[in-house]
């Protein structure tokens, strides 16, 4: 994977909410669960996990997806773009919706989860696939380590 330039920046559809990230993602994934399908109005959601201390957001946000236990979802109050989520017990991470980034194509999904709920026609070319989720914190850490080793230095322009 080509190393994107930091900071990563993005916004909601109407431009009222802006995000900035000063670190590379810890992991990228596609989630096929029915909640994500409904929250994103798509076959799956695209998420990048970032260190919480690398994430900043400005603009008028509201919480949504209130019936998602253990997850807090944040949307632009004006255009209702799904911007990011926080997961109970994972305060050190923020789960950003990849499509809000200016260079979303730079972060393809490395892992797909919840394939038991996947739409039959939905295809994702991810390195790892799970019917539910990785088994525990150690496996998640291993995926993050493997993902981080895939970054290559950006190509420098010739003078």
Provide structural commentary:
The protein is of the alpha+beta class and 159 residues long. The chain has a single domain, classed as Metal Binding Protein, Guanine Nucleotide Exchange Factor, Chain A (Beta Complex), CATH 2.170.150.70. 13% of the residues lie in helices and 31% in strands. The chain is built from two helices and eleven strands, in the order βββαββββββββα. An eight-stranded mixed sheet has the order 6-7-8-9-4-3-10-11. A hairpin with a 5-residue loop joins β7 (71-76) and β8 (82-87). The protein is globular. It starts with 7 loop residues before the first strand and ends in an 11-residue tail after the last helix. The model is unreliable at 155-159 (pLDDT under 50).
Named CATH architecture: Beta Complex
- Summed up, the helix count is 2
Q: What gross morphology would you assign?
A: globular
Mean pLDDT reading = 90
**Remind me, CATH topology?**
Metal Binding Protein, Guanine Nucleotide Exchange Factor, Chain A
Largest sheet: 8 strands, mixed
Q: Approximately how much beta-strand content do the residues carry?
A: 25-35%
Approximately how much helix is present in the residues? Answer: 10-25%
Give the spatial strand order of the biggest sheet: 6-7-8-9-4-3-10-11
**Name of the CATH first level:** Mainly Beta
Overall number of strands: 11
Describe the structure concisely:
This protein is of the alpha+beta class.
Q: Features of this protein?
A:
159 residues; alpha+beta; Metal Binding Protein, Guanine Nucleotide Exchange Factor, Chain A; 8-stranded mixed β-sheet; 2 helices; 13% helix; 31% strand; disordered C terminus
